[in-house]
Design goal:
homodimer; 303 residues; alpha/beta; inorganic pyrophosphatase (n-terminal core); Diaminopimelate Epimerase, Chain A, domain 1; six-stranded parallel β-sheet; five-stranded mixed β-sheet; 11 strands; 40% helix
Chain lengths: 303, 303
């Protein structure tokens, strides 16, 4: 049976493209590795896969051996992870309590995107990256760093993206804007689908929470359906057995976030950002990164 | 304030020497890093430090920023870790539930010794390793792999050790035997000191346990004071608030372990190794590695 390389549930472009890149790397190193996904792909990822003519990875089920990319918290992994042996972990998130029975290979870096680490592994081991894989890794970096504007973006991400753009044969800024535009906007999406976007589960102290994020060019379009979104967030919270649901409506042009808040304790959010939650919403100028600008603040507020 | 590089409590040669090596690396990369220790050094480590004329690292206290080497389980870290910011983690053990508020640099490899990873980092980044640091990293590898005889030993450990021996200017086998001999034997040690050797805390399912290991050339010398050791193990279990205490008396010449068992549940040990515990002892031929041949078996038995 193959080794499945898989990202987190509610996959974003990095989780899909780094899985494809990492499976390619493992194959080059002589292993029978296959990329997989832990949920439906989003519009942005579809744009990247279509552009570079790469198939959507298969939905994971019943894997015996896995390599995890772009996540390490057990709550964010595919259902069935408890029956699989984790062989390796390539990630750029905080460490979230994973236990393994044996020592495994772990490569975690505080960079803006998992794909930056995957590209670095290829270059270090002289694995040539073909144009379509380079294009996907580039897409992941442009997506995760919001065209280098996110505070999570490092010089390593920029350098890797520039090299990958040259291999892929695309003009970085032009392709990046087209990619983000394809993912932005909520055209044709139900409120439930908006509330589900890039949903991740967290524990902030004793509070169980979900935090989703949708990146848009026009936040007003999303805020116009706020009442429906709050209902969908409450339904998600109930289904995931958490008390608090947050939805980041991130404005990629103006580099800010409207944070929608459903459930309890809302005062944890107020403590974290030192701002009143008004009409279930806090406006956070400059905030684009869940990892750097939401999770640590919520974690500290829960202490 | 400096960044402290520190290994686990009840430090072994790898925890001390990898801390010294990693602090050297970080200094070469431009950071104000200082090696530290989380407990008293053992006789083997003293031999290596004396041989290569390197000072004993200072005992850690009140550190603000740390780099962890050779461990990642919170229970094995120095007291006060909860007040420190972990900047990086270099290790070769199973992942044991650590949580960090932010993403950090993590380099964990399934190799025989942390020092192998530290040496590799130096070589990758073209940091020249001076003779005395090479000698200490070599000592760590020879110690952790028991002169390459442990099942945890990989080709990478052997290759690194050979290169390091050349830099340090010592004959590998001859120095290795002298090093192990300096650490083996319980001359001048109290039963409490023997039971404390390389003590680590674990959770096997719901069972809290401590597992110590002493490597000797003549196990009979240790088994002769078994009754006193069992008393000391029970006292340790009470002090550490665990129910089970194990002591590996590892015969480095004959590659086997007498596992002493104090406390409850003893049947977890019987299930793990499919052998009866007789007179508080199980003989395990071929067993030399706690990490590969004790911890996974106990973890699985507890499932």
């Amino acid at each position: 049976m193959s080794i499945y390389v898989v990202g987190h549930k509610s996959p974003d472009t990095d989780s899909i493209c780094s899985a494809i890149g990492m499976a390619y790397y493992e194959k080059a190193m002589g292993f029978d590795a296959v990329p997989a996904r832990a949920g439906e792909i989003n519009k942005e990822t579809k744009y990247a896969l279509d552009y570079f003519k790469v198939d959507v990875p298969e939905l994971i089920s019943d894997a015996k051996e896995v390599i995890l990319v772009d996540h390490n918290e057990p709550a964010q992994a595919f259902d069935g992870i408890e029956n699989a042996k984790i062989l390796a972990l390539i990630d750029h998130h905080r460490l979230g309590g994973l236990c393994t029975p044996d020592p495994i290979y772990i490569n975690v870096r505080p960079v803006g995107c998992t794909a930056t680490i995957v590209a670095d592994m290829c270059w270090r081991h002289e694995v040539e990256i073909p144009a379509e894989i380079a294009g996907l890794l580039l897409s992941a970096i442009l997506s995760d760093t919001v065209l280098f504007k996110s505070p999570t973006c490092t010089e390593k991400d920029k350098k890797a993206a520039e090299t990958l753009a040259a291999i892929a044969g695309v003009e970085l800024k032009e392709y990046g804007m087209a990619l983000l535009k394809a993912g932005a906007g909520i055209d044709g999406m139900t409120p439930a689908q908006v509330a589900d976007t890039d949903l991740k589960k967290f524990e902030f102290g004793s509070t169980k929470a979900i935090v989703s994020q949708i990146s848009v060019m026009d936040p007003e379009e999303v805020l116009a359906i706020k009442a429906d979104l709050l209902e969908a967030m409450k339904a998600n919270a109930a289904a995931k057995e958490v008390s608090l649901a947050l939805l980041m409506v991130t404005d990629i042009l103006n580099e800010s976030t409207h944070l929608l808040v459903a459930g309890e304790p809302a005062d944890l959010v107020e403590k974290a950002f030192e701002k009143k939650v008004e009409d279930n919403c806090v406006f956070l100028p400059g905030v684009m990164s869940r990892k750097k600008q939401i999770v640590p603040q919520m974690t500290n507020a829960a202490k």
